[in-house]
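*** Fold description ***
***
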Amino acid sequence: MAILDPIKAEILAVRMIPNVSKDLAESLNLRPDQRSIGMFTCTIDDVGYTAIDEATKKAEVEVVYAKSFYAGAAHASGPLSGEFIGILAGPDPAEIKAGLSAAAQTVNEEAFFYAADPEGKIAFYAHTISRTGSYLSKVAGIKEGDALAYLIAPPLESVFGVDAALKAADVRMAVWYGPPGETNFGGGLLTGSQSACKAATEAFRDAVLGVARSPKDYAI
């Protein structure tokens, strides 16, 4: 593996329930028009959150459940668990299928972690979302369709990188994920114009790479 090689997530399991049971619907706080649900697990949680948000832009679906699993995929409860589960609700199986397909495309082709060192032991997520869907807009407290810089890295790298990103572009912190999160990473969601979010993403990437290159040097 080389520096900046992509580290891709994998969807481990997918299921649809065309007509969800009454008790489960109540537990998920579904509306009467949300009769179908679909769910998937994947190996990287932040990619899963990005993918499930993308689903809300491509189909008539809503995210009704999305969680990270503690300690990450390396310590998962089973081979199909990974480190994330997401559940979509919609009016019928066709919309659920469209949403799950959009999520899968994002996982497989668009949203990746990257290696910050030649061994691939330091991984980070620096992903610009040009237009948010309903899920991440709600998480970040922004208008649907606004841009986000989705920035995640190991603990020290995440704090150093977020600071660099905020100083590099006209963005503001929408959410800070103080380390450690459930998977022992940290980071933040920064919002601004699409170009500003892209510049913030690049600054975060460069800061993380700098720490990986010289971890015991003081920053100047």
